[in-house]
Amino acid sequence: MLEHIRRAGVDVQIIAPLRRDFKYMFLAHKAVGRLTGRGVQIDRHPLALRSYGRQIGRQLAQSKVDAVFAPSSIPVSALETRTPILFWTDAVIDSMCDYYPGAFARMGARNLDVARNQEQAALEKSKFAIYASEWAANSVRKNYKVNGERIQVIPFGANLPIRHSRPDVSHFVEQRLARQCRLLFIGADWERKGGPIALETVEILNRRGVPATLTIVGTEAPDSRFVERLGFISKSTIAGQQRLSDLLQSSTFFLLPTRAEAAGIVFCEASAFGLPIMATDTGGVGTYVADGSNGLLLPTHACARDYADGIERLWKDRSLYRKLSLNGFDEYQRRLNWDVAIQRLLQLVQTAVAEKSTSGRN
Predict the structure, then answer these.
(1) Residue 348 CA: distances (Å) to CA of 85, 227, 333, 342
(2) What is the pTM of this model?
């Protein structure tokens, strides 16, 4: 995100990292959370928010900026400034509570109230609240007092260098169709990302006489003669980027039967390579995977047999497979890349700055 903002010619002053000296005051609070199994998010507490606001405010007083932008609603919730504020995030507490594990699980009424107050404060401070999916934005529209025009949806983009063209994708597709079916799974959390379903899917396909393999990146997985486990591959290195690009180019389907998902950068990357996606219609996935366009979306109750049915159908219908592949690249070019996303962000920044200028004259 930062790289593409700068690439667009914007002068960015970074205020980070923010100190968290207050965390020591919440040690007992966190200990109780661990003992009770309740999620605790101390960064949303008013004490934390005031600390962040003061730190940002002090640095703003020494700078001349047109707008304040944050990739989270939390740091700007208690920021006192006349400079327009915008934030861009992938989730809101109401949609994440008891949906994601960890800090979002079993938060309890008191912690949830603190978190909701933080979300409302950020909305009141900001000119635009930008969300990475319709799922998150709809949660805000439903649960908070906010001018609907201030709520915007801008999907994230691919975090891999994309240098190929649509004709290249057509070439990728023909190469894939000349080989056996290769499923690609990328995710750090085997259970949450639906790993067991993915593993059963490849086993079902082989029992049906569809030779298939499953390549797993980013997590540990059970042994299977149909599985290739590659572990973690870093995008921060050129070698890692190239390895991931090769996998996305040569695989036949991207399979992610995720149980919970706020957004989906990996879906942008699969689309960029014209790789048809098989995923769950949950959370923010629907903003990134258009059912019947760049992949198939299955309901949350779908089982491995259902995923195998979809893959087998597309694998045998070569015309439909080619259509979804090229549609995927078109979706990437049209809306699932950072260049498009950042241009939309900068348009909102310009609007916010113009509104401030107009109100100042009045």
Answers:
(1) 11, 45, 21, 10
(2) 0.93
Q: Return the amino acid letter for 99.
A: Y
Preceding omega of 167 cis (within 30 degrees of 0): no
Residue ranges of the alpha helices (H) in the chain?
A: 2-7, 27-36, 46-61, 93-96, 108-125, 134-143, 166-177, 195-207, 238-250, 265-272, 285-288, 304-316, 318-335, 338-361
Cβ neighbours for 330, distance < 8 A, ≥ 6 positions apart: 166
* Residue 86 DSSP code: E
Please give the average pLDDT of every successive group of 10 residues along the chain, which has 362 residues: 95 94 75 68 92 96 94 96 97 90 77 93 97 97 94 97 97 97 97 97 98 97 94 96 98 98 96 98 97 97 98 97 98 97 98 82 52
User: What region, left, alpha or beta, does residue 231 occupy, with left being phi > 0 and alpha being psi -120 to 50 degrees?
Assistant: left
Strand order in the sheet with 151-153: 68-70, 85-89, 128-131, 151-153
In the chain, what are the domains? 2-157+338-361 (3.40.50), 166-335 (3.40.50.2000)
3-class DSSP assignment, residue 89: strand
Coil, strand or helix at 266: helix
Nearest to 247 by CA among 265, 263, 266: 266
Using CA atoms, how far apart are residues 223 and 166, in angstroms rounded to an integer?
37
Q: Do 334 and 228 meet the contact criterion of CB atoms below 8 Å apart?
A: no
Encoding tokens for residue 298? 């299955």
Rounded distance between C-alpha atoms, residue 266 and residue 288, angstroms: 9
CA quadruple 169, 173, 174, 177: dihedral, nearest 10: 170
* Whole-angstrom distance, CA of residue 332 vs CA of residue 288: 9
**pLDDT on residue 357:** 72
Q: Is the dihedral of CA 77, 62, 82, 4 positive or negative?
A: negative
